[in-house]
Here is the input.
Amino acid sequence: MSGAASLERRAVTELRAAGRKLEGYAALFGSEARIGSFVETIAPGAFRSALAGDVLALLDHDQGKVLGRTRSGTLRLSEDSRGLSFSLDLPETAAGRDVLALAERGDLGGMSFGFIVPKGGDSWQGEKRTLRTIGLKEISVVQSWPAYPDTELALRSRLSLNNEQNRRRRSLILAEAGAWS
Here is the structure.
């Protein structure tokens, strides 16, 4: 990957409400996700270095709707054998109350996370990408369908942006991805 790392997002649908807390997994190890023309998995330990940093919990990746953060202790993250688990104390804000109401009804779509891949943090075998180190920036509660909305950003780490052939290929992949949604 050349230049600055691009923010990528991925999703998983495992969460539960317990009082004013949400708990579950923001990412699962070994689970395959199809991103355009490639398949991606997360290796165990990929979040290890990110756990020491300040990570936000957001609503639908909206930086204006902060639900918690690790620095304040309202978001707790850990890795176990399944993946990146979280426990989030929901705030007494409109967004916090909305999330709690939707969680209690079972109406939330799931969880997602925003990240960057540092240089050397991924490996490729053909069209299979393995994330080995993830610079986690945020986890998000997703109200509707968890999806992979930033396919283009994910592809930038795979394809050279200076190559016209790759640019055309990326445009075709994005057009195909748009037809899926």
Summary: The chain has one domain: 8-180. Residues 8-180 form a domain with the Serine Protease, Human Cytomegalovirus Protease; Chain A fold (CATH 3.20.16).
